[in-house]
Amino acid sequence: MSIEVNNINKRFGQFVALDNVSLNFPSGELTALLGPSGCGKTTLLRIIAGLEHTDTGQVLLDGDDASASHVRERQVGFVFQHYALFKHMTVFENIAFGLRVKSRATRPSEKEIQEKVHRLLDLVQLDWLHDRYPPQLSGGQRQRIALARALAADPRVLLLDEPFGALDAKVRKELRRWLRRLHDELHVTSIFVTHDQEEALEVADRVVLMNKGKVEQIGSPAEVYNHPASPFVYGFLGSVNIFEGNLHAGVFDLAGTRFDVAGHDDAQNAKGLAYVRPHDIDVTRYVTGQTGITAQLNRVHAIGPLAQLELQRTDSSEIIEVTLSSERYRELELKEGEIILARPSKLRVFADGAVK
Ligand SMILES: Nc1ncnc2c1ncn2[C@@H]1O[C@H](COP(=O)(O)OP(=O)(O)OP(=O)(O)O)[C@@H](O)[C@H]1O
């Protein structure tokens, strides 16, 4: 089922939680809603589910206005961070619960319930735990059971609100791969809320980046990571260095090095801010007369295939983060404390006024 939200506005008192949000969630895709705490992700999810009303705007499910339809009619499955499984029921009965409470006319037979629950337990690879009680499960197992329980009702949409938020890093990683595989099998339209950028980039078909109740960017994980549309997205997805420079007629001057930058032809001696990823900076030993940002090499952290360098500009106290391959770092034979030159190989410039 496809989901469309149009011009959604939502306030809590004076606080604007969602500011004119319009989005499309294509059928069968797994979309991540990503953004910092309080940006409105959960509110949007609850509005789609029908658990929260909008002030203005529309939710369309498969093209039909859902405003009048009750939560139950929307056929939405939920998994939350702390999903309350019934502690006094076995795993099997937890999953069967939604089927058993159906009205007599729609309730499956006992045989059908048995078959369906075992099928779901197979799907989440936990059939061997069917007669355990929730307190006898690990956190990761509990979330997989929660997902099986959400799937029991044959939802047309699956909404997951930080489903792995309470688990430790290693289990989170395993579970997000597992979720991706499960999604590839089932293809239920799914929306996944997270504030963890790595999780969103690894799991989702598409990422929606939100900030302060607004959508900042929508795209595939590669698009949003490689081509951030705004300074916020740059800063939120990975580390970034910000350099101030002069922007004039399509040229950005950074400490004497000039870069042609697209989209700024009209700029007249304006202040610009260049956003540069740590791996898009090269460094060389200092040579008089060569251009580049002069900096002192403060510290190096070289473990594994990458070397992380911390530099301090000599003309200000600003710190620059640089990532090199360990091989390149060894070739350079640099020493901590040495003065070196840093040169961005790729940058994206925003006029100062565009930076919020
Ligand atoms: N029922 C409510 N009453 C008042 N304010 C609310 C209510 N629900 C949410 N808010 C506020 O709306 C904003 C958005 O909340 P929301 O839960 O959607 O954020 P979020 O992006 O999911 O954040 P988190 O990652 O912390 O869960 C927050 O500032 C929150 O305090």
Automatic annotation (TrEMBL):
Locate the ABC transporter domain: which residues? 3-237
Q: Which Pfam family, any one, appears in the UniProt record?
A: ABC_tran
A GO term from the CC aspect: ATP-binding cassette (ABC) transporter complex
Nucleotide-binding recorded as keyword: yes
Entries under SMART domains matching the protein: AAA (SM00382)
Its domain of life reads Bacteria
Matches recorded under SUPFAM superfamilies? MOP-like, P-loop containing nucleoside triphosphate hydrolases
For this UniProt entry, the molecular function terms from Gene Ontology, in alphabetical order, are:
ABC-type sulfate transporter activity; ATP binding; ATP hydrolysis activity
Keyword Transport applies: yes
* UniProt xrefs under InterPro entries: AAA+_ATPase, ABC_SmlMolc_Importer, ABC_transporter-like_ATP-bd, ABC_transporter-like_CS, CysA_C, Mo/tungstate-bd_C_term_dom, P-loop_NTPase, Sulph_transpt1
Q: What is this protein called?
A: Sulfate ABC transporter ATP-binding protein
Q: Return the PROSITE patterns for the record.
A: ABC_TRANSPORTER_1 (PS00211), ABC_TRANSPORTER_2 (PS50893)
Which keywords, in A-to-Z order, does the entry hold?
ATP-binding, Cell membrane, Membrane, Nucleotide-binding, Sulfate transport, Translocase, Transport
